[in-house]
Amino acid sequence: MSDIRKIVILTGAGVSAESGIDTFRDGGGLWEQHRVEDVATPEAFARDPDLVLRFYDMRREAIQTKLPNAAHLALAKLDAQWRQAGRELLIVTQNVDDLHERAGAARVLHMHGEHLNAWCTACDVRSRWTGTLIERPPCPECGETALRPDVVWFGEMPYEMDTIFSALREADLFVSIGTSGAVYPAAGFVRNAREFGAATLELNLEPSQGTAWFDEARHGPATQIVPQWVEEILGK
Prior knowledge:
Blueprint: E1 6-11, H1 13-16, E2 30-31, E3 34-35, H2 36-39, H3 42-47, H4 49-63, H5 70-84, E4 88-93, H6 99-103, E5 108-110, E6 113-120, E7 126-128, E8 147-151, H7 161-170, E9 173-177, H8 189-195, E10 199-204, E11 216-219, H9 222-233
Parallel strand pairs: 1-4, 1-9, 4-5, 9-10, 10-11
Antiparallel strand pairs: 2-3, 6-7, 6-8
């Protein structure tokens, strides 16, 4: 692994599941007893904003009670040591929790937004937000009551795609951790990375829908296989 200097890591719900954060969908197409279409689309917000805001208020409150697990801590360790060695690493996460950051990772990009941010649709400013939105509080920047969860819903464009593709273009290694391989555009990153010449590795609880695209796949709980892989990368 000594020739690897630039790594892009994609993380999904499987990284945070062992911290007690539910994965996005269960087998019945529900998310905490709600249809995804009722709480995670712009149309749902327009139709029933109280339902959507209440749902995300509960999620925001719950996430603040969770703790990083061994997978988050291992990736933060890799980030720190890789940075000290002058090597490039980017953690692109589909997760809207802050567990990577609380574990100590510094180079994290939230392509689907963050629960602990509120986005003002009046002035386009994003503010750190740990409380509720159901009471329609004013925007800290402009004072308008136009805040919504800073979460990318179905039908909306993920954040910083140009940055992500630039990193994939330069990567020596692309690693997908805890993702289903079902949600695009993230599910297509492995093919992008392969086209750009990177080695590819899947670390997941079970084979994903895109396992066949990876050069190597390892399956098991994230808290076990991620720390093992990190120790290999760090040469221990």
